[in-house]
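#struct-pred
JK: can someone run the complex with serine? inputs below
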Amino acid sequence: MKAIEIREKYLKFFERHGHKIIPSAPLIPENDPSVLFTTAGMHPLVPYLLGEKHPEGKRLTDYQKCLRTVDLDEVGDNRHLTFFEMLGNWSLGDYFKEEAVKMSFEFLTKELNIPIEKLSVTCFAGDKDAPRDIETAKCWEEAGLPKEKIYFFGKDNNWWIAGTEGPCGPDTEMFYDTGKPACSEHCDPSCDCGKYVEIWNNVFMEYYKHEDGTYTKLKQQNVDTGLGLERMTMLLQGKETPYDTELFKPIMDELKKLAKSDNINSRRIVAEHLRASMMIIADGGRPSNIDRGYILRRIIRRMTRHLNKLEIDLSKLEILIDLNIENLKNMYPELEEKKETIKQIILEEKDKFTKTLINGEREFNKIATQIMKNNQNTIPGKDIFNLYETYGFPPEVSKELAQEQNLKVDEEEFEKLFKEHQEKSRLGSEQKFKGGLAEQNETTIAYHTATHLLHKALKIVLGDHVAQKGSNITAERLRFDFSHPQKMTKDELKKVEDIVNEQIQRDLLVTCEEMSLEEAKKSGAIGLFENKYGEKVKVYTIGDFSKEICGGPHVSHTAELGKFIIKKEEASSAGVRRIKAILVK
Ligand code: SER
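RT: done, C-alpha cells with the ligand placed:
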C-alpha cells in the first residue's frame, strides 16, 4: 500500500466514524511564537483540547505536517527523519478510551489488514499522579488482543506531553512486530532493538501539567492520536527503511546515478533534508541566522555538504528539486504551487554556502601554511573553531583539508569550544522570538548590520569614547548618532568608510547567541547596557570584527550589504555627531 492510500484510508475510516476531516495546519505555527515548528498533530488543536469549541465539532481527523529537530544530527541512519506526516483523530470531550481503542484496532486489523499476531500494545502502569490504566487494557482484550500482548509501563514510556507544560495524559501505544528475533529473553515493546516498532499512539488527555510540576484534571476528557505515516508505509511494504518506500526511492535512485563517490548515509541526508527544506519553504519559512530560519539554513547547508561528499555537481540540485516535487506533489500540492520560490531559495542558499566554503578554505590555507612554516604539525582547535565561527566553515571540512596536507587537528580543544558554543545556541533557540521582526525587510535588515560595522569602525578610527547615542533606519538610509567632541575630518570619514567596506568584502558570517547581560559584557560585546533589554540579551557577532548587543535581525553574510557610502557628517547636539550613510548594490 502506498503512503497516499494509507492516508486516504485513514481519513475516510474516521469520517465514517463521525469525524470531520480538517486540513493540515502549516509547519510554521500560526500565532504561536513559543515553538519553531509544528511537532505533532495535537499542536494546532491545543486550545480545543483545553475546552474551546472547535467549529467543526467534537470529532476531528487530519493529516498533519510535522517537523522535529531534536534528531537532526541522526538523520542519515535508517530511521530518523526531521519532516514527517502524522495521521490523527481527536475526540474533544466526546468518546474516550473504549471507542478509541475499538477504532484503532479495527483500522489496523480490518483496513490495513495487519494480522493480530503482529500487534502488541502498552498501557500506563500508574503512579502517584494517575492510576494504572486497567480500563484501556480491558478494552484491548475485548477488542480481541490476547492478554499476553498487553504490557504496562511507567511515565517514561506511556505518558505523553508536548514539552514540559500543557495538556497531557496516559497513553496506549501500538507496536508492530517486524519478525526479527528477540534480542534477549527480556525483549518487549519497550526495547529498541528493532523487533518492535511503535506505529500508533492514543493519548488520553485528561490532565494538565503545570509549570510547577503539579497535575490537575482538564475540563473534558480528550483523545489525541498520532500515527507516523512514513513508518507505517515502510512496515506495510516490508521495507527496512523509509528511504526504500516510494516517498524517497526516486530521489535515492537518482542520487545514486549521479554520485561519483556513493555513500548511502549521505544520500539519505540529501533526500531527507531536501524534502524537509522544500516543505518548510512551501509553508513560508526562509533561511536566516536565528530560530526557525537557522534550522532551515542548517538543513540546506548539510544537504549541500553531502552533495559535495557524493561528488555530485551542485548544478544538478535544480533537477533534484524538480524530481522531488514531481514525486511528492500528489501528496503535497503546495510544492507545485510554490515551486519557483522553493527553487530560488534553495539554490540561493546553496550558492551562499559554496562561497562560505571557498572563503573558509582560503583562510584555512593561510593557517596551514603558517603552521608548516613553524615546523609544527597540529592545527590548534581554536583555529578550526574560529574558522567555523567567523566564516561558518564546517569543522569536518577543516579536518579533511588538514588530513590532505598531512596535518593533525587538536580535536579535543575544538570539541570543547564547539560544545560550549552549541550549548549557548541551544539556549538561544529555546528562547521565544523577541523583537519586532515583523516590520523588517531585507533593506532595513542590511542597514541594521551596516550600523554595527559603522559603530565598530568609528571606535577604531576615533577612539573608545565613541558610544551610540541614537540610531534610525529607513529603507533609504541609516542614521547613527554617537558621542564625539568635534567634527570628523575628511580623512577620518574615508578611513571609517574603507574599514566598513573591507569587512563587507571579507564576507563575514553574522551569528547570534543569547546570554545574560553579565556574560555579554564579559564577552566584550558593545551596545546599550541599559536594563531595558531584560535578563537575557542577544549578542550578534560579525566574524572577528564586531560583537554587539542587539535584538536583530541581521543579514547572514556581510557581502549581502553591497557598498557602504557615508553621505553626511554633522552635529546632532552638544558632543554628539550624526552620520547618514547608504548602501548601494
Ligand atoms: N500527540 C501524540 C504524539 O505525538 C499523539 O498524537 O505521539
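RT: quick notes.
The pocket of serine is lined by residues 40-42, 88, 160, 201, 203, 224-226 (CB under 6 Å).
The chain has a mean pLDDT of 91.
JK: thanks, will look after standup
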